[in-house]
Design brief:
By secondary structure, the protein is an alpha+beta fold. About 45% of the residues lie in helices and about 25% in strands. It is built from three helices and three strands, in the order E-H-H-E-E-H.
């Protein structure tokens, strides 16, 4: 298992996660093979192999950058 940590410090967590975590649910639906745990401004992304975790966490970082 590969683990990546994404910190969303430049944007309000409520804006990033969405109302009732709707944005997080969307991300989870788009990447069903990943496990994600979000606490405050920290998101932990866990995947089965390096390629999956790296590629998907990079997209998550890109989403974060687009919101900041």
């Amino acid at each position: 298992m590969i683990e990546r940590i994404v910190i969303i410090d430049n944007v309000d967590p409520v804006s990033f996660y969405g109302v009732n975590n709707s944005n997080m649910h969307l991300i989870r639906n788009l990447f069903p093979k990943l496990r994600m745990a979000a606490r405050g401004s920290v998101i932990k992304v866990i995947g089965d192999d390096a390629e999956t975790a790296d590629r998907k966490s990079t997209r998550l970082n890109s989403s974060h950058n687009a919101l900041s």
